[in-house]
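Subject: complex prediction, re-run

Hi both,

The earlier run crashed halfway through, so I resubmitted it with identical inputs.
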Amino acid sequence: MDTPTPLDLDLGRMLERLRQAHRRKRPDYAQRMDDLARLAEAVKRHADELVRAVSGDFGRRSRHVTQSADLMTTLGEIRHLRKHLRRWMRPRRAPVNAAFLPARAELLPQPLGVVGIMAPWNYPIQLLLIPLADAIAAGNHVMAKPSEFAPRTAAVLAKVVSESFPPDRVVLVQGDAELGAAFSRLPFDHLLFTGSTAVGRKVMAAAAPNLTPVTLELGGKSPALIAPGYDLRHAAARIAVGKCFNAGQTCVAPDYVLVPRAQRDELARLLLAELRRLYPSLATNPDYTAIVNARQAARLRDMLDEARERGVTVMQHRPDQEPPPPGIELIPPTLLLDPPDELRVMREEIFGPLLPLKSYDSHDEAIAYILERDRPLAFYPFDRDRRRLRRSLEAVVAGSVCVNDTLVQFGQDELPVGGVGASGMGRYHGEAGFLAFSHLQPVMHQPRLNAVGLFDPPYGRVADALLRLLAR
Ligand code: NAD
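This time it finished cleanly. Structure:
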């Protein structure tokens, strides 16, 4: 980027204002606690409005999904931060090498300065406010960008932020991909981006000239692996719930299932039965979330059409033939039996309610299938054999794992959230979030009485003796 655009200049001025204010006075413990409390109050005050806004953005989104996965998670995170902040902010004692005693050392958590946060549309509240709260807890100022694909929610979030913080401490900027690109070119002290792997690459490239460190929370294909002999009914129940929560528009949703070949058809039957129990109807069912927009729905329908054209067996949960209300994009939960690997549904992250079932002949083959692909954001082994499970856990490197269930690892205060390899880098939530936005500054304290001067030039016999002693 050679010549800055007017957008670059506008954003640059905003960043400078946040930076100057941070230089003047960085938030102390009391300030951070107050800020977090005010943020929680504002979220509570606007909770109903936020639920309505998210539903408006999706066309229809389950109130229970927004309340649990967006609001409760955000408020839970803020509560957790406030509970532990005093301890996390304390200098951490570090040992010093024996030769330097009686010096002492510590690690002093320092705020980084101004943090940039870019959020996607799928959980538009928590994916903006949780990193924001973590960054505030660590004593930073923040510039945040919500997704342009959830504009009603972004408008309410703008109120939440402006009612909680003065504009030289936290600002929210709204815009599309062009603004996103300009945002990621800003010389932040740290940038957290949540979104697709493709855009994550661009964000990291844009941050590189500034040497801005990045946390990338990306996506990818998260496998569920059903071990031979596993109770299929239980696996079907937990996979159906995890796949259709928010209609599959969840970064850690199980993307596809690896199942022993002989059990594939029984699993398909049980999954469909479970999906019918969870969602007895679709068209008018408030529990079944719509696809966020026509572009995303078209992407999913294209994947499905391609599979059908290739002769893949497709099984759909269609309890009613009623059309959905106008303006809503509904895709029914859909199983695809053994789609070939070259199809889009097996190459790209699905991010919707399509679920491929892939047969395997041996457990080792199933593990090899996962290892040959990008490192997943989440891995869901269903296995009660402890030794085999341990082998799977040691073989697969994933952002996070949940054994015998789906999604719930995401809601734990002290399990960090983050990917690995193509699913991202860095981690946040809880103390990991505090640390992601802090610099643990090593500090050494030299006491008045110490032995270090013994090793100063001119080097003589004492220095030689010391070297001999230390080399042992
Ligand atoms: P996306 O990557 O398509 O878009 C994210 C944002 O990037 C957009 O709002 C846009 O404004 C901005 N953008 C577009 N082009 C840009 C550019 N060149 N430079 C900078 N910014 C640019 O993602 P999405 O569709 O909003 O979200 C879905 C993706 O997010 C999925 O891949 C999903 O797995 C992932 N995701 C990951 C997590 C996680 O915690 N790891 C959570 C939720 C979603």
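Residues 118, 120-122, 127, 147-148, 176-177, 180-181, 184, 194-196, 199, 202-203, 217-219, 251, 349, 351, 377, 417, 419, 424 surround nicotinamide-adenine-dinucleotide (CB under 6 Å).

- K.
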